[in-house]
Amino acid sequence: MKRKTYTTLAAIHLGSEMLRLRIVEYRSLSRIKVIEQCEYPIRLGEEAFKNKSIPFSMVEEICQVLQGFKELMQEYGTDVYTAQATTAVREASNKVFMLDQIKLRTGLDVTVAEMPMEIYTKYVAIRKTVRDQHISSDKGLMLLDISSGGLGVSLVQDEQIRFQENFHIGIIRIKESFNNYQRSSLHFNKALMQFLSSTMGPVRKALEGQAVKYLVLSGTETELLLKVMGIRNKNKVQRVTTEDFRNFFEKVRKLNLPQLRKTYQLTETEAELALPMVLLYEKLLDLAPAAKEIIITSDTFLDGLILLRIIREKDENYTRMLEEEKMSLVHHVGEDYEYDYRHVTQVERLALVIFDRIGKKYGLDDHCRLLLRAAAILHDIGKYVSMRSHSLYSYQLIMGTDLLGFTEEDKQVIAMASYYHAHNVLERDEKRVPELKSELVPVVAKLSAIIRLADALDRSYMQKIQQCKVTLHNRELTIEVVSKADLDLEEWTFASKVLMMEEVYGFKVRLERVESL
User: Which segment of the chain is annotated as a signal peptide (predicted)?
Assistant: First the structure.
């Protein structure tokens, strides 16, 4: 019997307006074949944003559709699947019961993507499309992803993420923020523009003076945007000059709902979405007034789900590239809080030398390594608020920041590891630092212990250590360092910080200064 050389993957997206299934066969990132796809319209967003819950009748409908998807997956001999829900389910008060019903009735595990992960999943697909189109980020790319309930704004320059912010102002959410009477008012356009201006104001200030050549638009409503603009071809990427875009906006924003329907032959539902969509896009253009061209992509959350799975499994180089992009954003967060770049990069370097020697042996995987890097970079940002209580404020600033591509649990590990680099694991400000889930305690303790030692080895903030080597033998960890400078402060601090490492890992730790490695 001939051995199967490809993997069959099914991806399901439970979105705010549509249930989608795509089944692909893949051998590598460059060899992906779609063998089945189907979608089912279901308007969860309006229910979730208006009533804060999804009614039983819709849950019943979702289960029936998902059961049909499962049967298709079985017919195609699916090897693996991923199923995720986004904004509407995420914000529904009854999501726990809904997901439980899905599991009991279909056997499918559906997870809920938090907003930073939802935006990042689409970001991965969009960035690949942009690269495939040979559109360089050298002169600035601003990615604007609009969904039914959210907006992600990402600025990429020289292959680094310089800015990223997420907002709860998607198209359907905007529509549901105003009732029918308000939307029919002659003053609605003006009121909506003021609403959007007040929301986007802080972003405009943060991006002021940034060079942006291209605006990249994506999201659930781009198909409607293209229809209204009269662009009918089915290319994955459409390119429009900023001047043409503005002329189009100037025409549309003067029309009320009946005029929109008549002029562009829209349904009532499409017309109700078209006006807030156009006004939102117009405001987003103001974020990059010097942009010359608009790139409109058809990339979806489902595209990103599939790509992320295949990239992580099949393409180590691409995985590393994505990780470095995420780290570039972490550095940008550090810059916002005036971190000491030379100190944190030294701490990161030394922490990784220790991690790479002991990590896998003590149950830490590559994802933990990424979390360690982020914690090393951000561990001191609380000094921007208070030198005396900097670790507490590092925790609070990290928890209050959207970190693209990191889950809330990831962020908690990063924040706690940053907090505990200056505290013992059992010490905690109970009023301002919540208790960790028990399953996270070991990984936070292990990462904190490493950062404590790495930070101690640069206690002077002078990067005295030029080389470092770590060995583990007979339950004794030896850290050998090379330095031409006086290391008394580092050695004393190291001795005071070593206890956590010994307690958490169960071995003795010794620092040794050598002439060379």
Answer: none
32: left (phi over 0), alpha (psi -120 to 50) or beta: beta
Rounded Cα–Cα distance for residues 513 and 465 (Å): 10
Residue whose C-alpha is closest to residue 295's, from 116, 124, 131 = 131
3-class SS string, 475-497: CEEEEEEECCCCCHHHHHHHHHH
Helix (H, G, I), strand (E, B) or coil at 295: strand
Residue 323: what are its φ and ψ, rounded to 5°?
-65, -40
Q: Could you tell me the domains of the chain?
A: 7-113 (3.30.420.40), 116-299 (3.30.420.150), 315-514 (1.10.3210.10)
Residue 164 in tokens: 């990223």
Q: Show the 3-state SS of 303-321.
A: HHHHHHHHHHHHCHHHHHH
What does DSSP assign to residue 384?
G
The pTM (predicted TM-score) of the whole model is 0.88
Query: How many angstroms separate the CA atoms of 326 and 379, rounded?
Result: 17
Integer Cα distance of 165 and 183 in angstroms: 28
Residues with Cβ within 8 Å of residue 125, at least 6 apart in sequence:
299, 300, 303, 304, 307
The residue type at 270: E
Chain-centroid distance, C-alpha 367: 15
User: How many residues in total does the chain contain?
Assistant: 517
Q: How far, in Å, CA of 379 to CA of 386, rounded?
A: 13
Beta bridge partners of residue 36, listed in sequence order: 23
Cα separation, 217 vs 469, in Å, equals 47
Q: Which of 186, 334, 168, 189 is nearest to 253 (CA)?
A: 189
Cβ neighbours around 236 below 10 Å, total? 12
Sign of CA dihedral 25, 31, 37, 41: positive
Q: Which residue has the tokens 């030896």?
A: 478
282 Cβ contact list (under 8 Å, min separation 6) = 246, 249, 253
Cα gap 477→504, rounded to integer Å: 13
Give the pairing of strands 31-41 and 18-28.
Answer: antiparallel
pLDDT tens-place values along the chain, 517 residues long: 556 788 999 999 999 889 999 999 999 999 999 999 999 998 887 777 777 888 888 999 999 999 999 999 999 999 999 999 998 899 889 999 999 999 999 999 999 999 899 999 999 999 999 999 888 888 889 898 887 677 888 999 988 999 898 877 766 666 666 555 455 555 666 766 777 777 777 777 777 778 888 989 888 778 778 888 888 767 788 888 888 888 888 888 778 778 888 888 888 877 777 777 777 787 788 888 888 888 989 899 999 999 999 999 999 999 999 999 999 999 999 999 999 999 999 999 999 999 999 999 999 999 999 999 999 999 999 999 988 888 889 999 999 998 999 999 999 999 999 988 876 655 655 556 667 778 888 999 999 999 999 999 999 999 999 999 999 998 999 999 999 999 999 999 999 999 999 999 999 999 999 988 8
